[in-house]
Amino acid sequence: MHVRYRPDAPLVEPRWNAPTRVQTIVRPVIEPTPPPQRPERPQPSQRPQPPPVTGQRHRARPRRRSPLWARLAVTLGAVVLMLSVGALAGAHVLIDEATRNITQDNLLGDGSKSAAEGGDSVDGAIDMLLLGVDVRESWQENNTRADTIVILHIPATHDQAFLISVPRDMLAEIPPFERNGFPGATAKVNDAFYYGAQNGGDWAGGAQLMAETLKKATGIGFDGAAIIDFGGFKNVIDALGGVRMCVDEETVSHHMVLVDGEQMYKTDARRAGQRWAAEPVVYQQGCQEMNGTQALDFSRQRYSLSDGDYGRQRHQQQMIKAIVRKATSSGVTTNPLQVNNLIHAAGAAFTLDTGGIPIADFIFALKGVPAGDVLTLNTNGGRFNPVTIEGTEYEQLSDLSVTMFEAVREDRLLDFVVENPAVVSRS
């Protein structure tokens, strides 16, 4: 049973209502033509909520716990320091101590790899799901979607890391979810996190439904997953003393304003009665040092960018790489005390799925992957590939992107990139 997501739905408590018919979408072949003009998109005035839905429950299979290469979960920002723990890797006890306070949970559900897919060993290719969520003080904790969706692929050779950003507006069939009675829906992929978190599902349920949705859409099963609240990103960057970001086009913030020289969310400025005293936040073109608030805000913008969400994906990838670069170049990752401090900076908003295996074991076993050798890739060549269904616009995967995900599943992504260099992001 499926329902369609309506972006103009009212803010109501989630319920499950009657499903509607699902329309089959035929994915067109994308020819290499010049980038299309960016379509006009409405500026939302409030945070949309998915419509209520109902339906019969789906009986989920028991989850097979998969091993995780926790060392690269750090690229999401919270444990980025573990990418270069080579100096610590000689002392297993130091790694264990540095990672002791990381919160762990089951984030994959049926989205994990089966044994036949290599899910019972860290010797083969490793695929991780990295999710960034935005929860502000004025919002309920589970009233959120995954604004950042990244697939991290490590080939079986363990000598390269690939980051693939998934369009948040990608058309997806979200499967039924027994944990909270969700019957399934045709919606934007980032809604999977919201649906899974409702009715007691919490963030773990949101991550599980997201993993299952992506496995259904791409065929990729996951070895592990990580979630971090955007506040955790900010704290990590500030703990590092800021990061260097390069602004490729003038960017006006859709989320924040300047009040007396300080950045604050527009909603906070209105509540404080400072709406009329506020000035726009504008990021000028060029490379510059940014603190946590600035880097996070810049990397979240899409409305003022010529390539919209694809530009945002590129900037998010740039921020992740900037965190890695700063942590490794400043010596943080070779100092167990600083490693521990950086993990604490991420706070309780960081959650990791290690498949029941101690994080330190993965770090120690797979310590050979170069920290700085991270290649960022884009879907759809970084171009809009929209489809409109019943008045709602979605992104659909091009044939080339479908082939790229096949290459991930078959662990031949490097060969695919060599043959299709256009998928490499400019971040």
Task: Provide the fold topology.
Elements: H1 92-98, E1 103-104, E2 126-133, E3 146-154, E4 161-165, E5 171-174, E6 185-188, H2 191-197, H3 202-218, E7 224-229, H4 230-239, E8 243-247, E9 251-259, E10 262-265, H5 266-271, E11 279-283, E12 286-290, H6 292-300, H7 308-329, H8 336-346, E13 350-353, H9 359-365, E14 374-377, E15 386-389, E16 392-395, H10 399-409, H11 413-419
Parallel strand pairs: 1-13, 2-7, 4-14
Antiparallel strand pairs: 2-3, 3-4, 5-6, 7-13, 8-12, 9-10, 9-11, 15-16
Fill in the keyword field for this structure.
427 residues, alpha+beta, 7-stranded mixed β-sheet, 11 helices, 16 strands, 27% helix, globular, disordered N terminus
What does this structure look like?
There is one protein chain. The chain is globular. A hairpin with a 2-residue loop joins strand 15 and strand 16. The longest helix has 22 residues, at 308-329. The strands form five sheets. The chain has a seven-stranded mixed β-sheet with strand order 1-13-7-2-3-4-14, sandwiched between helices. By secondary structure, the chain is an alpha+beta fold. It has helices at 92-98, 191-197, 202-218, 230-239, 266-271, 292-300, 308-329, 336-346, 359-365, 399-409, 413-419; strands at residues 103-104, 126-133, 146-154, 161-165, 171-174, 185-188, 224-229, 243-247, 251-259, 262-265, 279-283, 286-290, 350-353, 374-377, 386-389, 392-395.
